[in-house]
Automatic annotation (TrEMBL):
Region of interest: Disordered: 1-31
UniProt name for this protein: Uncharacterized protein
Keywords of the record: Membrane, Transmembrane, Transmembrane helix
Source taxon at top rank: Bacteria
Transmembrane segments: 61-80, 86-109
Lineage, top ranks: Bacteria, Bacillati, Bacillota, Clostridia, Lachnospirales
Organism whose genome encodes this protein: Agathobacter rectalis (strain ATCC 33656 / DSM 3377 / JCM 17463 / KCTC 5835 / VPI 0990)
Amino acid sequence: MQDTGRNSNKDSNMDNDMNNNANNNVNEQPLSDDKRLREMYDKLVGYEKTIHEQNQKRIKIGLRCIYIIPLFFLVLLMIVPDSSKIIFLVLWIVSLFAIAVYLIGVEYVDYKLQEKMNEISGCDVQSVSPVVQIEDRVQEIAERVEQRFDTMQQSTGEDAEQ
């Protein structure tokens, strides 16, 4: 019977060791889980930023295409004989619509991506930024127009004085 007592002591010691190991693993596991989750989140944010930058490039290319491709068809429309003008007119219109759909699609995908990222990070939904910052560009153009207008007024004022 003493052997049974020793076995039960060994069993209880093994149970204590397993519990201690389990407690240690529980204490260590959240740290490694937090670290892994942080790494995954950082990768996800990096991926989102990369996709956003690629979408900005796609929008710039699309805006260039909306100037160049329809202009090409319009020039061909003016050059070709009367019998082929309808074809180039249709191609001109279709190219405008196709490029517009492409630009809308890229903006929509980027918007949804940012919306999901804000949902994951817990940010406000209103913090979604557009792919192309139009306000900055408009402000630059307005400042240039004002500068030219001021120089024109100064030059006309000097001409009136003479």
